[in-house]
Design goal:
- By secondary structure, the protein is of the alpha+beta class.
- Helices cover about 35% and strands about 20% of the residues.
- It is built from 13 helices and 19 strands.
- Strands 1, 2, 3, 4, 5 and 6 form a six-stranded antiparallel beta sheet that branches.
- A hairpin with a 4-residue loop joins β9 (about 170-175) and β10 (about 180).
- Residues about 15-35, about 195-200 and about 435-443 have low confidence and may be disordered.
Length: about 450
């Protein structure tokens, strides 16, 4: 009588109940494999990983499409690869969360090759999604909403005692109807395990993907890797989302990137994308990707809260660039936008007969056009670019959403604008030149 192959001892995540007592002896905590999976009809290969491949399949019993992941045969006789593959399925199967792909079945085929089935996600990876989206407000807003969901999944895993250790856009799936899934837990590290859980052991050496790897990962000491290691991975993904670049600089051979990661040589996001990243978001990324774990966010929940604060505050605005001499706003036009200068200089002036009266030269950080936008009045002056100029643009729609124009905030701001306008008229009546007015009144 032939014996059927069986799986190694179940890898139990502490505090997650598994059928029966959590203290099941190792020789009894086994799952029997089944012969050829006749209930599954495999289709053409969907993708390959470092040690396995994935096929879409149809589960004839449940009448649904699934994804089947199978270990490559050449790794079956290696206990490290085999046990690691099975540990991935067992860990993922115990993480029940809307943003983590559910595992349906784990077994071994008639050739002794382990496989597991999981939900088949119809969509694209986050890396492919970013390739299809130009840098700008839409990519930023939608991308940050995706990142909030990824943070949800990672924070839940941390609560269950699991560190992912390979957070990158390739391991996030964005489905067709807005679902977001964190994938590939093959390098996960358990921080709370039972002694009998021998299916997953820490091994020294770097683990992860160099371009998104925290310095402590590059140094390869498992005990130095904790929740803050995943915070760095999330920060590296944010870095790429907002800048289109990677934290360790331009693409290079893996050994070069690994050295940069080992040394913590992170390119400041402002250097990678000058003038493109809002300051508040820039500070989030810098803190999340700090080479020193003690200076990072100490939990994913803290990082997620700051991302949500940024989204709620509507702190992302479109940018426009102007060439020297180009007119940005024209005196007499009805204002439909206000501008904040990010870089360069602007000259404000108004026409007095055939002469131009110079009002001010404005630099980075100064705002103009807001009075006309708030009051719906014709612009009182013209503004032109002196240098190549980049501005943030606040339009009427964004203003109304941000101020809640039908509520107290909008009413107060409009009242203040009217007071400033009245004060300006008083200055003019007194014969004072506009250039002597305070900046808020001049604008």
């Amino acid at each position: 009588m032939s014996s059927r192959p069986s799986l190694p001892p179940v890898c139990v995540i502490e505090s997650i109940p598994v059928a029966g007592d959590n203290e099941i002896p190792a020789d009894q905590a086994r799952l029997d494999g089944i012969p050829t999976p006749t209930h599954l009809r495999l289709e053409h290969e969907l993708g390959r990983g470092a040690m396995g491949h994935v096929h879409p399949a149809i589960d004839r019993n449940l009448l649904r499409h699934v994804a089947l992941k199978r270990l490559d045969r050449e790794y079956v006789d290696s206990p490290d690869y085999r046990n690691g593959f099975i540990a991935e399925a067992q860990i993922t199967g115990q993480l029940e969360h809307p943003n983590i792909v559910p595992v349906h079945e784990l077994s071994i085929d008639e050739h002794g090759v382990p496989f597991f089935t999981m939900k088949l996600v119809q969509g694209v990876s986050l890396s492919r999604w970013m390739e299809s989206q130009a840098l700008g407000p839409e990519r930023l807003e939608r991308g940050l909403e995706i990142m909030v969901k990824v943070c949800d999944a990672v924070a839940y895993a941390h609560h269950r005692g699991v560190i992912h250790r390979d957070l990158k856009p390739d391991n996030v799936m964005v489905a067709d109807f807005g679902q977001v899934y964190l994938m590939d837990w093959g390098l996960a590290r358990l921080t709370k395990t039972h002694p009998a859980s021998s299916a997953h052991k820490d091994q020294s050496g770097p683990v992860g993907t160099p371009a998104y790897m925290a310095p402590e990962q590059a140094r390869g000491v498992p005990q130095d890797m904790d929740e803050r290691t995943d915070v760095f991975g999330l920060g590296a993904m944010l870095y790429e989302l907002v800048s289109g670049q990677l934290p360790y600089g331009k693409p290079a051979p893996a050994r070069v990137i690994m050295l940069r990661a080992h040394l913590g040589e992170i390119v400041p996001v402002e250097t990678a994308a000058p003038g493109m990243v809002p300051r508040y978001l820039q500070s989030i990324i810098e803190r999340a990707t700090n080479p020193d774990p003690a200076l990072r966010y100490q939990s994913v929940v803290e990082l997620q809260q700051d991302i949500r604060t940024f989204l709620r505050g509507g702190l992302y605005l479109p940018r426009r660039s102007f060439q020297p001499g180009e007119l940005i706003v024209r005196e007499g036009d009805v204002g439909d936008a206000a501008y904040m200068i990010v870089s360069g200089r602007c000259h404000a002036f108004r026409n007095v007969g055939t002469e131009k009266e110079s009002l001010a030269v404005m630099t980075a950080g100064e705002v103009f056009g807001e009075m006309s936008l708030l009051l719906g009045e014709p612009r009182a002056a013209s503004v032109e670019a002196v240098d190549p100029v980049t501005t943030l643009v606040l339009d009427a729609h964004t203003l109304s959403e941000g101020l809640d124009v039908d509520g107290w905030t909008g009413a107060l701001v409009r009242a203040l604008a009217h007071r400033f306008r009245e004060l300006e008229h008083q200055f003019r009546s007194a014969g004072l030149r506009r250039s002597t007015l305070p900046p808020l009144i001049r604008s």
